Amino acid sequence: MTPLERLVAIEEIKQLKAKYFYAYDNKLWDMWRDEVWAPDARLEVPEMGRDIAPRDAMIAWVIEQSADQVSVHHGHTPIIEITSDTTATGLWAMEDRLYRSKEHPLNGDTAYVLGFGHYHETYVKLDVGWRIRSTRLTRLRTEYVKIF
User: Fold this and answer.
1) Three-state SS for 74?
2) Buried (b) or exposed (e) across 69-99, using 16+ Cβ within 10 A?
């Protein structure tokens, strides 16, 4: 891979992650499934004791968890390493804000969650472009606001 091809791949992965955030926050689940994730995708959320695969099971779980939630995700300062012509790794600093309704509180009484941490990811380049193969979300700090 030439230096220019490497830079293009890194930019394509940044655009992929931007699509991840946009589709998730806007609940565009078909876009999230078809344009973000590899078919053999895996999602790991250690703080919730979750390690979910394949893609369709993972997406079904996320849809159920987010129900009527409003979310705002931010990803920052990625460290992306191209490991071959078709694979890469990434580390993203993140912040998420999750707003829950009275009908769907988190842990029974939480209306608002503010989280800070990192996404640890692997990527694969398919015929349709780069896709996320795995994500592990680790949080450094989580604030829960109980309003109900």
Assistant:
1) strand
2) eebebebeeeebebeeeeebbbebebebebe
Q: Provide CATH code, domain 3-146.
A: 3.10.450.50
**Binning pLDDT at 50, 70 and 90, where does residue 67 land?**
confident
Compute the distance between CA of residue 134 and CA of residue 148 in angstroms, rounded to an integer: 35
Q: Is the pLDDT of residue 85 over 90?
A: yes
If one counts every other C-beta atom within 10 angstroms of the C-beta of residue 54, the result is 13
Residue 136 has which token pair?
């592990």
Model confidence band, residue 148 (pLDDT cutoffs 50, 70, 90): low
Q: At what angle do helices 29-36 and 3-25 cross, to 10 degrees?
A: 160
CA–CA distance, 106 with 69 (Å, rounded to integer) = 10
Other beta carbons within 10 angstroms of residue 68's beta carbon come to: 11
Where along the chain do its domains lie?
A: 3-146
* Segment (H or E) for 84: none
- Model confidence, pTM: 0.94
Nearest to 16 by CA among 30, 37, 43: 37
| Whole-angstrom distance, CA of residue 64 vs CA of residue 111 | 17
